[in-house]
């Protein structure tokens, strides 16, 4: 499969009063045409910063791309000006955030907000755009779209607002949809409906999805591939089956062992003892070493490179070096 997006050795830092925070430290990722790729990891792992960097949505300053490239359709998004990026945002690449209110304008009807992109990017006339807005509201499952199109965000429930945000994101048929915890703020029933909606859209169109989440149930339900991030790095990547049934990185083992049973609510992937590394002074070796039950001397001294374990799976861990002792994953992870 062809890549629609390719991130190469991306480094992103934030300059703060207490110094440089290296939020993203050499991330390589590819998104294939038509796939849904999940990015999982604790808060502070770099998953949101990475996805916002694709859209150039990190506040800058203090955020800045130090190095690396983000190839989309042959062009490097990391080098585009704000003006050039405006033509990509919402047209070629759209983003949905956790809280729909942050992306909706409370003083504008939802119809107008959907129409904006259609008029700007698709050269539609006003009546055409309005007709399309009604179709889109219908597509995302909002009843009475003819009436709803004239209403304001506060007249919608939380779940309905997120549907509106999705309608706006889809208005221009984006090639890539980035969804950052899109259902976290919603109750379980609405959550399932929104995920079904995204799944159908992915299956029907040729939209590729990057889904950022800490909910492994959502990953299993939605994605074909998973990237696990930790300490500003991708520590393991593979198909959903590989990650769930044969994970190789001790951090992935921790995640899967701490996976809540079905219908159990959990706020974040924090069940692993210890705290993530301080990225204003990152460790020179493996970022997980301080919390890893299998850490060896080499781990704290040298950064592990990715080792391929199949055509689709790789992990950055010294245990995959042929000289390392054989370590079995914990019982809870074994199928
Ligand atoms: Fe643990 Fe070492 Fe592997 Fe890091 S490289 S996850 S510290 S075994
Ligand atoms: Mg986040």
From TrEMBL:
InterPro entries: AAA+_ATPase (IPR003593), ABC_Ni/Peptide_Import (IPR050388), ABC_transporter-like_ATP-bd (IPR003439), ABC_transporter-like_CS (IPR017871), Oligopep_ABC_C (IPR013563), P-loop_NTPase (IPR027417). This is ABC transporter ATP-binding protein. Residues 5-256 form the ABC transporter domain. It comes from Virgibacillus siamensis. It comes from the Bacteria. Pfam families: ABC_tran (PF00005), oligo_HPY (PF08352). The keyword Membrane applies. PROSITE patterns: ABC_TRANSPORTER_1 (PS00211), ABC_TRANSPORTER_2 (PS50893).
């Amino acid at each position: 499969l062809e890549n629609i997006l390719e991130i190469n050795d991306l480094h992103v830092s934030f300059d703060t009063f207490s110094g440089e925070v290296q939020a993203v430290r050499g991330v390589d990722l590819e998104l294939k045409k038509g796939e849904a790729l999940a990015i999982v990891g604790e808060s502070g792992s770099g998953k949101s910063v990475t996805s916002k960097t694709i859209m150039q949505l990190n506040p800058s300053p203090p955020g800045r791309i130090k190095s690396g490239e983000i190839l989309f359709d042959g062009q490097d998004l990391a080098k585009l000006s704000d003006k050039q990026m405006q033509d990509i945002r919402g047209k070629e690449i759209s983003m949905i955030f956790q809280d729909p209110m942050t992306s909706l304008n409370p003083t504008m009807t939802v119809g107008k907000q959907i129409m904006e992109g259609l008029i700007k990017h698709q050269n539609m006339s006003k009546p055409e755009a309005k007709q399309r807005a009604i179709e889109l509201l219908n597509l995302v499952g909002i009843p009475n779209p003819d009436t709803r199109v004239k209403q304001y965000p506060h007249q919608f429930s939380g779940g309905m607002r997120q549907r509106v945000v999705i309608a706006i994101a889809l208005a221009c048929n984006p090639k890539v949809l980035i969804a950052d915890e899109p259902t976290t703020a919603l109750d379980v029933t609405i959550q399932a409906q929104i995920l079904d909606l995204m799944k159908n859209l992915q299956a029907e169109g040729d939209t590729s999805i990057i889904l950022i989440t800490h909910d492994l149930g959502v990953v299993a339900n939605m994605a074909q591939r998973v990237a696990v991030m930790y300490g500003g790095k991708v520590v393991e990547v593979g198909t959903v089956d590989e990650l769930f049934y044969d994970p190789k990185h001790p951090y992935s083992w921790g995640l899967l062992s701490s996976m809540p049973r079905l219908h159990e609510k959990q706020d974040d992937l924090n069940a692993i003892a210890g705290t993530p590394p301080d990225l204003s002074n990152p460790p020179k070796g493996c970022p997980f070493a301080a919390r890893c039950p299998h850490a060896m001397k080499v781990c704290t001294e040298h950064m592990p490179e990715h080792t391929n374990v199949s055509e689709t799976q790789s992990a950055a861990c010294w245990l995959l070096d042929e000289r390392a002792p054989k370590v079995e994953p914990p019982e809870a992870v074994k199928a």
